[in-house]
Amino acid sequence: MNTDAMTPAQRAAALANGREVDRLPCNPNIANGAARVYGCKISEFNRNPKAIAEAQMAVYRKFGCDSMRIFTDLFTWAEAMGATVTLPDDATADLAKPAISRIEDIDKLCPADPYKDGRLPIHLEAMKYLQDFAKDEIKCSAGIVGPFTNAFFLFGVNRTLKLIHKNPQAVHKLCRISLETCKAYAKAALDIGLSPTISEPMSSCTVVSPKVFRELSLPYLKELIDFIENYNGTKVIMHICGQTDKIWKDLADLGISGMSIDNIASLKDCKLAIGDRTKILGNVDPSGVMYSGSPQDVRIKTLEGILDAYDSPKGYIVMSGCSLPIETPFENIKMMMDTVREVGYPVQPERVAGMLEDYRKQYENQTRRD
């Protein structure tokens, strides 16, 4: 049950203006696990925009998280451009077949129309429902994959990885047409009133080198972010999976409002590198802790993250390192939120360190008894 003294919108506004707040913002990033909270199958999200929005509201009402996002899977934009997607009855969509398989066919690709193609119109309609449900209580965002990542799904992941070295100009062409789809969708979301958030998993240093990122992803990412900001002044939050430390400064140079990092990256290092330029979000392990761990594990890792990043100059949002697995236990999600509430604000590091030491001892004693 939500026991906060402020709504997420009130909290965000107060923090932005240096006023007193009740706690740090927190977003467990529940993603398609919202279906478990709402009580529907995930397949409903692929055809029922009202269900998408109502599931997001159900998550907010149950846990009191600080943001809601319309986003179901990474493949929605490639699908709208001709890729084939598998839509299971009660699991997240997956890529079955890319839009094209030959370099010669890149010129045949067309940007998607977000009002007509694939599931994009369903997501836009879900945004309208969510805006109506949320009103001024909580900020809503529209998730979108970045141009580079979408390009992989247009041509196939393995083929695109090879193409990067054999024919980088072809990758540029894929990214250019991909970018046009991203721009059109971002504009449609902005017109509804939602702020786009960008996920660029294939730009990770775990997948491609920083050199490849700067040559083949960064120019299109910059153009998309500039387009969004120039359209109505909106600044975006970025998420890139895996290790990202070697490109943090490149991303901060884009003028993003927040950098969401995976659990294998370091909150403390990210704070020191770019915390004076953008908010830091993260990074409790979504699988090893939030899904597989105990509530005590969640409490400890949440406290450790707070100690690492609470004093980041541009702000810190407690978050999982990536979207949570669908079956993440509710008690673990609740523990993340309750821990942030217990810490309160302003964060008192000595008190938090004491809490952490006590919980570790309790956990060790419990483990010995078990």
Strand order of the largest sheet: 1-10-9-8-7-6-5-2
Q: Supply the number of structural domains.
A: 1
The global form is: globular
- CATH top level class name: Alpha Beta
Number of beta strands: 10
Fraction of residues in helix: 40-55%
Structural class: alpha/beta
CATH architecture: Alpha-Beta Barrel
Low-confidence stretches: none
Portion in strands: 5-15%
CATH topology (fold) name: TIM Barrel
Number of helices: 15
**Helix and strand sequence:** HEHHEHEEHEHHHEHEHEHEHHEHH
What summary fits the major beta sheet? 8 strands, parallel
Radius of gyration: 20 Å
InterPro entries: Methanogen_methyltrans (IPR052024), UROD/MetE-like_sf (IPR038071), Uroporphyrinogen_deCOase (IPR000257)
Protein name: Uroporphyrinogen decarboxylase
Organism: Clostridium formicaceticum
Pfam families: URO-D
Essential attributes:
single chain, 370 residues, alpha/beta, TIM Barrel, 8-stranded parallel sheet, 15 helices
